[in-house]
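Standup notes, structure subgroup. Blocker cleared on the zinc ion input:
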Amino acid sequence: MRFADLHLHTFFSDGTFTPEELVLYAQKNSLACIALTDHDTVEGCERAAKACAAVKMEFIPGAELTAEMDDTEVHILGYFLDTQNAVLLEKIAKFQAVRQSRIHEMVAALNRLGVPLKVEAVFALANCKSPGRPHVARALVKERLIGNLDEAFEKYLKRGRPAWVPKAKMSALESVELIHQAGGLAVMAHPGLNRSDEIIPGLVDAGLDGIECFHSKHSTSTSERYLEIADKYRLLVTGGSDCHGFSKNKPLIGSVRLPYEHVQELQAKVAERKAAAGR
Ligand SMILES: [Zn+2]
Ligand SMILES: [Zn+2]
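Run returned:
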């Protein structure tokens, strides 16, 4: 049996691995195929593709876009993206700018609370175009302004806490269109974490192609529920670990093993769409 892990992050967003390290761990886990899905960026894809090619592993260029639908945050995974697509790159650059100004706002809020974190410390640590809350949390720990990451979120950064800043997002419809025009497939990420199944029919109407039934934070019964929903709406089934590097002594990569037949179904859909567009 061949397996894939289709939800992975590197240091091009809030993961800690380089693309090469990620591929090394994919190899250790005997994966046949991986997809890179960094938040609001495709920057790591070129290096990951190269590293995969060197070890004859299949690679799918992707991204995880932050979107919203009916005031609910939803993450939309894009697969088989043309990472040179001008519209995609332009839109992504805008969202990266929004992410950077959000870091400034969060640090300003911390400063108002008397926490002397410098915004430069966060950007130096993040060292990427898609900085986010985890980078602020890591900087707080590194500067010894808080004991650990959980505490940073609990005390300051979680929704509703004093240094939480809402994130400007694109609409889910816009993100699905953006992915489609870049030749990709749009997949709803970790629906079990959202607990907002009521938005699924709207996403399907917007052109959603698939749903991430298997995820490291989905229980077996959660996965089963989304397999049923995938069946009901004729959505493709995907799965991935959502590995961000080491967590509790070992990386999550490979903890979700998606049977390769699902990758073949994704490929068939991309080919079908390409053929229809060329007609
Ligand atoms: Zn996500
Ligand atoms: Zn993710």
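Discussed briefly. The first strand starts at residue 3 and ends at 5.
Next: hand off to the docking folks.
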